[in-house]
Every structure is written in structure tokens, then in C-alpha cells.
Amino acid sequence: MERRLFVLAACAFIVAAVLGSAWVTGQFTTPAVDRTEGYVSELAAGDQPWTRLFRVSDVLSGLACLAGVALVPRVAREWPGWLALAAFGLLTLVAGLFPLDCAALSDPLCGRREASFAHVAHGLARVLGTVAVLAAMMLLSARWASRASWLLTWLTLAATLVTALAQAAGHGVGLAHRAQLTMIAVWLVYVALRLLVADDPEEAGPRIAPGRMGGVGGARVRTDDAPAWSGTRSGTDSVAGCGRAHVVVQGAGPAVLITAGLAGAWFHWDAVAARLAGGHRVIRFDRPGLGLSPCAPVPPTLYGEVARLAALSPPHPQRVTLIADGVACWHAEAFARLHPLCLARLVLVEPACAGERRPLPFAGTAGRWLPAVGRTWGATALARLTGPPAHRLLTGTADPSGVYGTGRVLAAAAGEWLARRGMAADLRRLRAETPFPDVPVTVISSDDPDGCAGHLAGELAAEHVRLPLAGRHLRLRAPQAVADAAT
């Protein structure tokens, strides 16, 4: 899928170059604009006959450039260059939305009129856009160490300087400006060709905020990308059939396995784990793409999550107490039905309803694309802007490790949401085919307006603990109640 993203990004840059070069043939349709002395931007001036055509070309060129940057898979230390190129695309779009009032150099009467806001905005956008694209060319050329890219960069810079000198001299501005735009278009095509022949980038290891080591107290952290983040022991946990996962192990004694809800991370359970670690071996983990776990190449499924829980459980004859939250309660219930001899106790915190709605027809296809999309600059930018505030809004707490500011986590959360209906359908079939074992079950809920928690407690012959004053996110607001239910 990542190779296809490279192709899509390359196509977007080629489209941006072609649309940005509409003036090559279009200049012959507007003889009022002097091809030697007039700016190319004058073709889109408000008083010219083909203004809409050239303005639409500029807007679409800017959008194509933005789309190309958004689709490029993220590579470490290249972000300043791609950010500058995105700024160029945005400023090109702005220049198309706000045209010149008239042909500034070709029309002698243009300078006598009072300039409108659109006229001033267009000029400012063009100047800043030129600065942005030159910055992008220099920054990316430095990272790529490419002679071809540097050659185009210096030619573009030279054409820009000649344009400025020609404007000061009052002669030849049109020729110099057209040379500058030609070099920019050729460089965009070069970027596209470079993407088409580029190797797939290695996924960057998860980053963690200073002072946060992936666990608390005597926790052992196991992760595939961070050999030195644990204070006691580190390594790789390869979950059978499910790939490698970030796992935090804390304490000693009977095993307690905690699985977080939709888009949850290990640190959401710090308070619960701290209360249990005194007499239990508490195991927490991040599902693929979430927390500090790498992405998986396939969408999540109910049976895949059951296999993950089975791989993280202690070997027979030991049994595990399983604590699950939200949608993960489906995984836990399926685990209990498929592996009854592995389970000592089940604690379901705010279980989600397995409704009767049919799976989304596009969920599988979208789920296969999401891991690759999560590694793009577009997903990274969206996650940086929306992830931390959304996490604080939904949970009422900060993101101490910065994981919700990554495109990987954003894509994984979207993948889990898309997979919900398919998992619910699988769980309904499993309920009809496989009996629930005779194990102690506790269902904990706060508000239960739809009666889902109460109904599930009745179906599983479970103890139903209601905490009406605790609000949502009981793992954060009532950790002692959750810990008590597991002992």
C-alpha cells in the first residue's frame, strides 16, 4: 500500500506542475498581457477574458501540491522541506482565489487605480509562495544530496534574482518570470520521479516524551523499537500470529491481563496497575498501531485480538484474570468462550453494545490502507493538530507520552472504529455457537442509558457494579473499584 501512496503523491505533483504551467499555451489567448514585460499572474487578472480559467488552474495546482505533500510517507528529518512545499501549495491556492485587479505591468492604467484587498493579497501570496518553494527546494535538496535537485534549485534561484533585477530595471520581467515558473514546474516533476523510484522508508520507532519510560514503578517494558526505555528489562514480544507488540509487565503473583478500549493506550491503566501490582503480575499492552506498538499490515479482527490475548496469557495450567474496557470487552468475552481453561476471572468495564448493524462494505479495504496512510505527512500533521486536544477532551487527561500526536495512532484508531461492526457480527455468531464458561464475571458501569451493561451482566450471570457518580472512563476516575473487582 505504501508503494501506491508514492505513486499517488507523484501523480499529484505532476498534476500540480501541469496545472501550474497552464500559462504556456494560455498566454497566447490573452494578447493584452505582454509576454516579455508582463507577469504570468496578469493572465488571471480580474479584467482579463480568461481569468476564471487561470484562477481555477492555480487553485487546482495548489490543491494538487498540498495533496502530494499529504500523501508522501514520512521520512525522518525531511519535515521542514515538505512543510515549506505545503506552504507553497497553500499560497498558490490563495493566489488563485484572490486575483489581481488588472494587468499590473501590461496595463499602463492599472497603477492609477486603488488596489483592492484581493490585489494586495495576490501579490503577497506570490512573494511568500516564491520564498516557500525556494526554501523547500533547498531543504529537500540538502536532505537528498541530489545534484539534479540542487541544479534545479540554483537555476530557480537565479531566475528569481533575474526577475527581481528585471523589475527594478523595468525591462524583461515577463521572460524572467516565465523562466522561474518553468524551473519550479520542472522541479515538481523531478520530485514526482524521485518518489516513483524511492525505496519504502523504514518506519520510525515510536517516540516517547521525556521522563516517561513506558511504565511505572517496577514495570518491565517490552517493545520492538526501544531497547533502552525500560528501567529493568527490555526486549521484543512477538505475539504469535500477530506481530510484535509493546508490553508492560509489573509486579509478581497471579497474572492480570489488561486490554484497553477503542484507541486506548497502556498508560490509561497506570492507576489500576499500581493498585494491583503489589500482589499480582500485571500485564498491559498496546494493540497494533496504538501506544508504542508498530502498525499491523492487516485490519483488526475479533479472532486476531483473541489470539493476541491468548499469546499474552500465562501458559497452562496458570489462569489469568482479564480486565477489558469498552470495545475490548468483546475481545475478552470471545477469549473466554474460546479459551475457557485459561481464564480465572473476567472484569468488563463499561462494555460496548454489540449491535445488530451490518459491517461497513468498505471497512476491509480502508483498513488495509490505513497503516500506510498513518505514515504520511498528512496524517502526521492532522494528528499533531487534533490528537492531543481530542485525547484531553475525551479522557480529561493529558497525553504524557505524546503518542496521540502521531499519524500511526490516528490511523490505528480509525481502523479499530471501522472494524467494530465486523467484530460485533463475529461475536454474535460466537455467542450462538459457543457457550460461556463458568467463571466469575464482574460488569462495571457508570451511566447505562441503553441498558447494555445490565443486559450483558444478565446474559453472563455476572455481578453488575454500578458507579453512577464516577462518570465515564472508570479506569481513570474509579481505579480502586476496578482493582477490587479483579481480586
Helix content: 40-55%
Number of domains: 2
CATH H-level homologous superfamily name of the largest domain: Alpha/Beta hydrolase fold, catalytic domain
Radius of gyration computed on alpha carbons: 29 Å
Major sheet attributes: 8 strands, mixed
Number of helix segments?
16
**Spatial order of the strands in the main sheet?**
1-4-6-5-7-8-9-10
| CATH fold-type name of the largest domain | Rossmann fold
pLDDT < 50 stretches: 204-236
**By helix and strand content, what is the structural category?**
alpha/beta
Indicate the CATH architecture of the largest domain. Answer: 3-Layer(aba) Sandwich
3D structure, described in words:
The chain is of the alpha/beta class. It has 2 domains: 2-197; 220-485, Alpha/Beta hydrolase fold, catalytic domain (Rossmann fold, 3-Layer(aba) Sandwich). 50% of the residues lie in helices and 9% in strands. It is built from 16 helices and 10 strands. It has helices at residues 2-20, 23-26, 51-71, 79-97, 117-144, 147-169, 173-197, 270-276, 302-312, 328-338, 363-373, 377-395, 407-433, 452-459, 474-477, 479-485, and strands at 220-222, 237-239, 243-245, 247-250, 255-259, 281-285, 320-325, 343-349, 441-445, 463-466. The strands form 2 sheets. An 8-stranded mixed sheet has the order 1-4-6-5-7-8-9-10, with helices on both faces. Strand 5 (255-259), helix 8 and strand 6 form a beta-alpha-beta unit. Helix 1 (2-20) packs antiparallel against helix 3, helix 3 (51-71) crosses helix 12 and helix 9 crosses helix 10. The chain is elongated, with a radius of gyration of 29 Å. The model is unreliable at 204-236 (pLDDT under 50).
